[in-house]
Amino acid sequence: MTPVMAVPDVTPQTTTVASATNINHHIYSTHKTLTAPPFLPDKPPPTGITLCGFEGPEKLLEIWFSAPSRSESPDSGLGSGPPSPRQSVSTIYEENWYIETGLRVVPKHVWDDMLAIVKAQVLSSVHNEYADAYLLSESSMFIYPRKLILKTCGTTTLLHAVPRILDIAREYCGFHHVDHIFYSRKAFLFPDKQVWPHGKWGDEVVYLDYLFPSSQYNTAGYVVGKVNGDHWCCYLASPITQSDCDENPEPIPPSWSDSDSEKDSEEKVDSFQDDLTLEIMMTGIDKDAAKVFWRNNNEVEDDKSGNAEQRVYNETGLADIYPTSKVDHHVFDPCGYSLNGLMGPYYWTVHVTPEEHCSYASFETSAPVRRFYPDAASAHTSEGHDVYNTFEDVISRVVTSFQPAQFCVSLFTRKSISMQHKRNVLQGRIPGFDRRDCIRHESGKWQVQYAKYEARKDEKIL
């Protein structure tokens, strides 16, 4: 088994962010001093609504935990020896429930306390045998046995909650080891309204590097796209393994290039166990499309009938994207929309800010496509769910509902998947749009692709 490093115990220390050049002032701040986490601000954060508008682009955090050993379980007695021959399978399962359900056993009030740090609240939830999906006042949270996905918009303080999330995983699940950490966000519309360390990418990287030190983790933070234009920021961290130490006497950050080592090319991943995240971030939403996401005169905020939600779901065509999924959604007052959907082990989520001066919509899913994940797609189809052939098919279907002036796409996959298909990922055409940027980076066994699209003038998307 490949060894992994323990989650760091965070102790007070002081770190100074290096001075930044003027050209990158919107990415880095200057001479900011860190103290003990959670580095909370001296005053409350501003509300999500400002004189400028609402900050729709979300901060996205995904943390994977390694399964605990018996000696690391919340009940140390479970690690005292092998099960008795007289124990039934059901008894063994019940005594090892935390291994099977992991983060899903954490009580809701514990998540509520964590979300209070983020400045978000649970509105509702939906569940299936694989995951719990929480619809938040500011976006979404998905809980899998060994994976947490937290996505928040506005001026939420997502990164402040990372130490608490790690504590919860240790206390309730016996998760002492982090497997992977992903944090990303699109360029903010109103970065000056964010609460430190959010708002300037350099500060966010320094904050995360403090929590996941280079002595234990391979970390890398990147700006993907045009620094002087629309771009996407991404941070990855994974534990330093023994193989890393054997190959490199000095730990180094993951390499982000197009070159592949012989070892990388030989990596094989069962498509059933592969992981992907497709995110579509849209701005300049069509006025007619945006109108649907406002409550009408008959839909008051305290209406429990769900009429507003069902109207938006049907009129926008969102109901046709993954029609067999279990959906939880909410229309805000006076406008705005959030949706969580579960379909077997996969999820999808949509968030919309329809105001014209700051219009934004996001779509995210972990669902496989037939071309690159034939085994997983076949299994998903056999369970009665619809499967798209390519990622371009998914993207084309989503943008039809919003008619954006421009959008960018980020796609996380294992590197082996793109290599098996000769890197022909996100190379197809999106009707009605021209691709302006297409950037591919690699980090360890992961590959991320970023693409920027602009709508063709006077061409309506059908």
From TrEMBL:
Q: Which SUPFAM superfamilies match?
A: S-adenosylmethionine decarboxylase (SSF56276)
Per the record, the pathway is: Amine and polyamine biosynthesis; S-adenosylmethioninamine biosynthesis; S-adenosylmethioninamine from S-adenosyl-L-methionine: step 1/1
GO-annotated molecular function: adenosylmethionine decarboxylase activity
The family database entries (InterPro entries) matched by this protein are listed as:
AdoMetDC-like, S-AdoMet_decarboxylase_euk, S-AdoMet_deCO2ase_core, S-AdoMet_deCO2ase_CS
Would the keyword Acetylation be found if you checked this record's keyword annotation?
Answer: no
Cofactor(s) required, per the database record: pyruvate
A GO biological process this protein is involved in?
A: spermidine biosynthetic process
UniProt keyword list: Autocatalytic cleavage, Decarboxylase, Lyase, Polyamine biosynthesis, Pyruvate, S-adenosyl-L-methionine, Schiff base, Spermidine biosynthesis, Zymogen
- The ranges of region (Disordered) come to 245-267
Which is a Gene Ontology cellular component entry for this protein? cytosol
The reply on keyword Ribosomal protein is no
* Record-listed E.C. numbers: 4.1.1.50
Pfam families assigned to the protein according to its UniProt record, in alphabetical order: SAM_decarbox (PF01536)
Q: Which PANTHER family match?
A: S-ADENOSYLMETHIONINE DECARBOXYLASE, S-ADENOSYLMETHIONINE DECARBOXYLASE PROENZYME
- Family, per entry: Belongs to the eukaryotic AdoMetDC family.
Q: Tell me which NCBIfam families the record gives.
A: SAM_DCase (TIGR00535)
How is this protein named in the record? adenosylmethionine decarboxylase
Organism for this UniProt entry: Synchytrium microbalum
